[in-house]
């Protein structure tokens, strides 16, 4: 089946009820969502296009509306390594609202990608002015950080790697 | 009881040994050897340890010789249990189990061996020895698989038992309900008095011996003295066996022990325990074994010897990802909880006969009675854990009998999957093998290599497919085979995926790494009757893009419109445009409920734990969340003991289990 999450599970059937078409925005209250959308803009990136630069000031907090973005780190002699990919509905650029406001990896579009962009400085100013926005956005950002942390731990364990020599 | 109360004068003991030796029977009895008493071959009564007795305390056994003036000085069985018991004769430490040969034309024959030596007679077995033998009968020939070597040795075993006239401080047969009286399992029973033996026959064979010896009835006073003697032994044990501290109470011990698997005492014991395995070597019921393969130089002939192994050794629970019981406390807990708790679930009895050898021969004097009285105390103990009834695990309807034979098959096709993983298509016309169901596995034998368990990744009308990752010498060899090569398979083994549980329901399949192999046959079966199932969703994780299995097949599945396929890798270079991240990430966008889902999961255990958490959060019922576990398997049929997980033999009772069946054992460290 097509990998589009809203594709039907069976021919002619309804949308797959397992993978629904939601984004992190759906978790926000209508007021906060409307406030955020009032300062948002959309940006599009082609495959291979750089979205964020590692260690540079994070330009925005984004919500992917379509496509896929790879978060990469450069390793000497091994080149860029993709650590995790982000897809529709997920947050990109949590470091836009967490000091020191610098990206912790490079972000590259892996396919045609559309992002709902909340530019970093206006967003931070908004969060200072509007505590409701801050109160809803920060837990969301923290959940994203936590998720990436768990992924990193699991990758660190290298679960699929060989351990000690097998008896056979 | 067939014949009661005959008398064998002491000077005629040798006649009894001579009768036992007729028909070429090998007679085993207690002898002095290396400063201790062990059971060994005897030729006459003079080989017995006449005049010797023993004393035991935790960590020490001493031989003692009475003075010639003492009335008991001529007794032959005036000692407590021998260190070896009779296990080395009925279940030897090392026997040839499997031989592999290549004929001059190159064809392969793999044979399962059984004992062919002379029949045995044992004289001097004690009540605890007989209790242990009954335990081994249940373990090794109670089915579904039968150890052919044990069965052959046991078939014609003649037993002359002796009721104990003395007990050591380490003996606790009275507590375990196995002695000192001999109530079953012997052909003849002797009670040794100063002047001779009161003899009773407990079988037809025993009665024939009595008739051959033409024994006269014992005097009533002799019979009475014999009974008084064993009664005195019983009384001495009730006074002496309990170490200081809380009482060791066998009633309800299983439940109390299983309720205290996290007791802090396990870690304290590990500070003293050397993991030397002495306790398991002297234990008359420990049956765990391993296969030791040796080969001639050209690799044409090899044999696999079944030899005693111990759950205390570091490699006992070793698999490709490491050991499931890396700490001493894990191994001690496995031994003690198996012996006194999970043995009940597996074989319907305790695994302990109360002989006390594990106490006497422990170099640091660990006393199981004391440890059990602390860990599984009859009342609430320091852990605060309340004794709770722990139900035995559910059993699946496996076959009544599992055959051990190996079937020679031909490698028909070799298909490399990744740098270290290869799929072999094995041609066979064996109806049993072709009747394999998805999720089952085979043991794969080739000369000169250990015999690995390999899951069956596809079942064709005329062949099976095995996907093998080169993780050790044997699997490396198998992945380098060429078409036309021969190998031998034992199987199909284990519990299959319960396909019927998914009928009319949505199906979620989650695979990690080589874990996709045992799921491949399941996917085939689901798609063969696609209309019987709801939505089918397949989630696959691999270490890197290059480590993905069945790439073309997955692409073909992804192209279907009646199946959702999502693949992720743990790490990737810039050339990979697919998903990167762990398998559980694939469920991030799931907002639906899993109430109508049956899930099948296979991969590294840590990955499966994470997947179970995610799917449980989505309300997939634990009864419908199925995993296949990896454990160290040496026989594949529940005889070698390596793959135990709590009360389960993963090879025989699994490898497929539901999360509900595994319960807390799924996440318990070191089990």
- Counting structural domains of chain A, the number is 1
Q: Ends of chain B: how far apart?
A: 44 Å
Q: Any idea of the CATH class of chain A? A: Mainly Beta
The main pleated sheet of chain B reads as: 8 strands, mixed
| Radius of gyration of chain A (Å) | 18 Å
Q: Count of helical segments of chain B?
A: 20
Helix content of chain B: 25-40%
Content-based structural category of chain B = alpha+beta
CATH topology of chain A: Jelly Rolls
Counting H and I runs of at least 4 residues, what is the number of helices of chain A?
3
Features:
heterodimer; A: 168 residues; alpha+beta; Jelly Rolls; 4-stranded antiparallel sheet; 8 strands; globular; B: 671 residues; Elongation Factor Tu (Ef-tu), domain 3; 4 domains; 8-stranded mixed sheet; 7-stranded mixed sheet; 20 helices; 31 strands; elongated
Give a structural overview.
- The complex is a heterodimer of chains A (168) and B (671).
- Chain A has 168 residues and is α+β, with helices and mostly antiparallel strands.
- Chain A has helices at residues 30-39, 120-129, 131-157; strands at 41-45, 50-52, 60-66, 68-75, 79-87, 91-92, 106-109, 113-119.
- In chain A, helix 2 (120-129) packs across helix 3 (131-157).
- Chain B has an eight-stranded mixed beta sheet.
- In chain B, helix 9 (265-272) packs across helix 11.
- The mean pLDDT of chain B is 91.
- Chain B is elongated.
- The longest helix of chain B is centred in the middle third of the chain and has 21 residues, at 220-240.
- The interface between A and B is large, with 52 and 61 residues.
